[in-house]
Amino acid sequence: MPQPFERHHAEAFVALNMSDSWATSPTFGIEFAGKLIGTVNHEVDPPARTAMLGYAIGRAWWGRGFATEATQAMLRWSIETYGLTRIWASTDLGNVHSQRVLEKLGMQRGSASPCEGVEISRCTSSRT
């Protein structure tokens, strides 16, 4: 994610994701005090009732609970909307703050594997 994460970065990301089908790639902007400070999205596989969770928050707003609040809202909405039974997300192994956000969602840390040369950790959450 570019740093500083400015409005035009968030707008470009939302515009790119909004070109995808809402049915499989819903994306929301995260706004605070009239500013677009980040995004939260899913890549949904409706037949499998699974989704990948993604989010990005501008550095100036890190550590203030915005990622946790936005991802919690996204999960509530998507579970209700899609009836999801499994949600997963990946983080850089060194990104302990993002891992903590996922843990607050009830996700469990899984395996680590390389992705484009970066070691990542996959976290999952299952619902029955």
Question: What does the model show?
Answer:
With about 130 residues, this protein is of the alpha+beta class. The chain has 3 helices and 6 strands. The protein has a 6-stranded mixed sheet, with helices on both faces. A hairpin with a 2-residue loop joins strand 1 (about 25-30) and strand 2 (about 35-45). The longest helix has 17 residues, at about 65-80. It is globular. About 25% of the residues are buried. The model has no long low-confidence stretch (mean pLDDT about 80).
Key attributes of the depicted protein:
acyltransferase activity, transferring groups other than amino-acyl groups, alpha+beta, GNAT family N-acetyltransferase, Acyl_CoA_acyltransferase, GNAT_dom, 3 helices, six-stranded mixed β-sheet, 128 residues, single chain, Aminopeptidase, N-acetyltransferase
Brief account:
With 128 residues, this protein is α+β, with helices and mostly antiparallel strands. 30% of the residues lie in helices and 38% in strands. The radius of gyration is 14 Å and the shape is globular.
Contiguous runs where pLDDT drops below 50 for at least 5 residues: none
User: How many discrete structural domains?
Assistant: 1
The outline comes out as globular
- Helix percent band: 25-40%
Helix-strand blueprint:
Elements: H1 7-18, E1 27-32, E2 35-45, E3 50-57, H2 66-82, E4 86-92, H3 96-104, E5 108-115, E6 118-126
Parallel strand pairs: 3-4
Antiparallel strand pairs: 1-2, 2-3, 4-6, 5-6
